[in-house]
Amino acid sequence: MDSFEWNKIIGAVLGTGVFAMGLGVVSDILFSQHPPEKPGYVIEVAEAAPSGEAAPAAPKVSFAELLAKADVAKGESQSKKCLACHSLEKGGPNKIGPNLWGVVDRPVAHHEGFSYSEAMKAFSEGGKTWTYENLDHFLTNPKALVPGTAMSFAGLKNDQDRADLVAYLRTLSDSPVPLPTVEAAAPAEAPKAEPAAGDAPKTEAAPATGTPATEAPAAEAPKPAQ
Fold it and tell me: How do the pLDDT tens digits run along the chain, 226 residues long?
């Protein structure tokens, strides 16, 4: 093999090496990866309210206000949940629970002909009646107001649903009990004006106290020696 053939072989090897090196440089440029300044992922979190500044709570609506805007028709629909244990008509029979005609403002555990649980009898002590407030609490959670009651009703958790139901029960009477009065909210006081900067507060001079000064009495002349 002459030198020309060797030169071709060596040239081919060198060319292949140069091509491989160039290909590596181009690959690094195209697919280079830059590490992040800080490792990990950035997760945006809503800023919490400064400590000590709690969100203002919504004012609680009184049961009297809910009754004032109650829907009796919706309350009649809610009363269907009572029919499994109670009758609603005047002179209706006692079932698992007592008849509910005239229940609003009726003495607790005193409906004629019904056998009340010991827990309800204990709750009735002191002359309690089924006031609007007592009915509201009892219908929210019977067992919470009267622990040990035989009533298995889970309660109505929605405030307006209870008001609608009680408003309907109120109509089940020859003389419906008047609705409670809604107390008007007290007007907010106007903020007091701050004195302008640089204005010194005016003060009133305090009246002088004590006995006013009087002229000193004249000194007595010395008596002649005797």
Answer: 566 676 777 777 777 877 777 777 666 666 656 666 665 555 555 555 555 555 555 568 899 999 999 999 999 999 999 999 999 999 999 999 999 999 999 999 999 999 999 999 999 999 999 999 999 999 999 999 999 999 989 999 999 999 999 999 999 999 999 999 998 644 545 555 555 555 555 555 444 444 444 444 444 544 444 4
CATH classification of the domain holding 68: 1.10.760.10
How many Cβ atoms from other residues are within 10 Å of residue 172's Cβ?
A: 19
Q: Give the span between the Cα atoms of 40 and 26, in whole angstroms.
A: 29
Host domain of residue 132: 63-171
Q: What is the pTM of this model?
A: 0.58
In a domain, 74, yes or no: yes
Question: Within a domain: residue 86?
Answer: yes
